C-alpha cells in the first residue's frame, strides 16, 4: 500500500483557516486521496476525497499537487467542533475489481483549535 | 447519527468470558468492516465482509470470530481474550462496487470500548 506522511499535530485559532498537509510520494495512478477525521469519543467520519483535481464540499476543500505527491486539506474557518484527528488515506483497490475500498489508517494529525 | 449502530458501547470482561459485539447498519450497504483501535496506535483493519462473504482477515487471532448473517448485521464473537485486546472496536459499512469512480465512503459506528481484565 502506498503510504502517507502527516504532521503529528497542528494548532489553529477559531475562525481562522487551517491547512493540513499530507505527503504521498509513492501514490499510484488509480489511488484516490481520502480524508477522514475522528472527533473525540467517536468513530471516524468521511471528510472529502479526490483524484487529480481540487475538490470542495460543505466541510472542506482538498488541494492536490499537480504531481499528486502531496495534498492539503483546507478548513476555511476552523471551529471548536473541528478539533479532531485528521487522517489522509490512499484508497487501496484489491485485485479483481471488487471495489469495497479498503482504507489503511496512519497516525493522522491531531488538530487543536483554540477559542 | 451515521446510520451504523454498535452495541454494547462499553464492555468489561474477564479472560475466560465469552461475549459478542453487534453492529447494525441502516444504509443499505453491502460491505461491512471490523477495526481495532488501541491506545496510541492507528486503526487496524481486522475483517471485511463483502456481500456477506469474508474477504479480508488481517491475521487476526482465532479468539476473535466474526459473523455476518446478512448484509445489515455484523458480529464479533470474543472468547478467552487477553488484556492486550482491550481497545475500541469500530464497525463500518460501505457500498461496494461502482467502478473506478466510486469512492466507497465508509460510515463508522461509535465503537465498543472493550476492557479485558
Identify the quaternary structure here.
Answer: heterodimer
Summarize the amount of helix of chain A as a percent range.
under 10%
Low-confidence stretches of chain A: none
What percent strand of chain B? over 45%
> What sort of overall outline of chain A do the alpha carbons produce when their principal axes are compared?
globular
The main pleated sheet of chain B reads as: 7 strands, mixed
Total strands of chain A: the figure is 9
Assign the structural class of chain B, choosing from mainly alpha, mainly beta, alpha/beta, alpha+beta, or little secondary structure.
mainly beta
Whole-angstrom Rg of chain A: 14 Å
Binned, the helix content of chain B reads under 10%
Describe this structure in words.
The complex is a heterodimer of chains A (115) and B (117). Chain A is mainly β and 115 residues long. Chain A has no helices and nine strands. Chain B contains no helices and eleven strands. In chain B, 35% of the residues are buried. The chains are: A mainly beta (115), B mainly beta (117).
Summarize the structure.
Chain A is 0% helix and 42% strand. With 115 residues, chain A is mainly β.
Spell out the key features of this protein.
heterodimer, A: 115 residues, mainly beta, five-stranded mixed sheet, four-stranded antiparallel sheet, B: 117 residues, seven-stranded mixed sheet, 11 strands, globular
Amino acid at each position: 500500500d502506498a503510504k502517507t506522511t502527516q504532521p503529528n499535530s497542528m494548532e489553529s485559532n477559531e475562525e481562522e483557516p487551517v491547512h493540513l498537509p499530507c505527503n504521498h510520494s509513492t501514490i499510484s495512478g488509480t489511488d484516490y486521496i481520502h480524508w477522514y477525521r475522528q472527533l473525540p469519543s467517536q468513530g471516524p467520519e468521511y471528510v472529502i476525497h479526490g483524484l487529480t483535481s481540487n475538490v470542495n464540499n460543505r466541510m472542506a476543500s482538498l488541494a492536490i499537487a499537480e504531481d499528486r505527491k502531496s495534498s492539503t486539506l483546507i478548513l476555511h474557518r476552523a471551529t471548536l467542533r473541528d478539533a479532531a484527528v485528521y487522517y489522509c488515506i490512499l484508497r487501496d483497490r484489491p485485485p479483481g475489481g471488487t471495489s469495497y475500498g479498503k482504507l489503511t489508517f496512519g497516525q493522522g494529525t491531531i488538530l487543536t483549535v483554540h477559542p | 447519527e451515521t446510520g451504523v449502530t454498535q452495541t454494547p458501547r462499553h464492555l468489561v470482561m474477564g479472560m475466560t468470558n465469552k461475549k459478542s459485539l453487534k453492529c447494525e447498519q441502516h444504509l443499505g450497504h453491502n460491505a461491512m468492516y471490523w477495526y481495532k483501535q488501541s491506545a496510541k496506535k492507528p486503526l487496524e483493519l481486522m475483517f471485511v465482509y463483502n456481500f456477506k462473504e469474508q474477504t479480508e482477515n488481517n491475521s487476526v487471532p482465532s479468539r476473535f470470530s466474526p459473523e455476518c448473517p446478512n448484509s445489515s448485521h455484523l458480529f464479533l464473537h470474543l472468547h478467552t481474550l487477553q488484556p492486550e485486546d482491550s481497545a475500541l472496536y469500530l464497525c463500518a459499512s460501505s457500498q461496494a462496487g461502482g467502478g473506478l469512480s466510486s469512492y466507497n465512503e465508509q460510515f463508522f459506528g461509535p465503537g465498543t470500548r472493550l476492557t479485558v481484565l
